Amino acid sequence: MFFRNIRTPNGLLLFERKTGLNVLLDEMKGRWGWEKPLYVAVQITNKCNRQCKWCYASSSSSAPVGVWTREKLLDLCRHLDRWGVLGVAFGGGEPFTFPGFSSLARQVWDSTGLDVGATSNGDLITKADLVTMKGHFGQLRISVWHPNEVRPKVTRLLGQGVDVGINTILFRNGVELVKSVVQEGVKAGVNDFVILGCKVYGRAVRAMMPDVEDVRKLGEYIKKHREIGFKVDPALSVALSATQGIEFLQPWIEEKSGPRFLSITYDGYVKPDSFSNVRVPLVNFEQLPEIYRSFFLNQVI
Hints:
28% helix; globular; 8 helices
């Protein structure tokens, strides 16, 4: 078993990518500041087979593909590997619109020590993709917005040797929809759910955002189902902690994660996270540590 380690303010974090095992040696707490992110999120393309009205990236089938080629991505991942981050999380757009994405992901896994994950709408993933990724991939997160999508999008992916979790969005007056997605996911065999509050970003509008009553109802549901593996975004986490006393320890959530994440866009910019308006052009990969320090030494988020 091989552990990759990162020094953090909370201690030395050890991570084993094949099992997903994390060990924090907190007796070393306070010895270091952040020197690098845990993960780098890469928006591999802005192209998507869907055109969701709430998409933060305003992706569509006609959206620009971006600057990334297979060789550029492999070169980027080699640099990330040498930098010593834990892994790379591919997103979009829809990553499976990128030609040969599953074989690219496997090549990154095989040629580096990086954990490799992706967020997908699930529509374009084939049996051949799953065979390619089996044993050479971390977690596949499937975005599900309606319970009727669980069976066609998620069930067929389970038991294929790739770890699968579900992402869903809480909209205004949308708690019952979230509950239905979770219930269908649990029936299918999933026990890993990320609930994201809709935000005014990209194509989404303010009327879609959850309100205080939505947060209250969500908190009641989470309290009743402690056996389910829930994660939420930072805004929901703060609201649930303040109003419901529910605490989340979730270092893998990207948005407003501070120094734990770094985001790279489809058009070649670096951001503190995918929702940030701060961005710096990435001229060469050797810049990444310097850009990271410039963001987080000054706490630009």
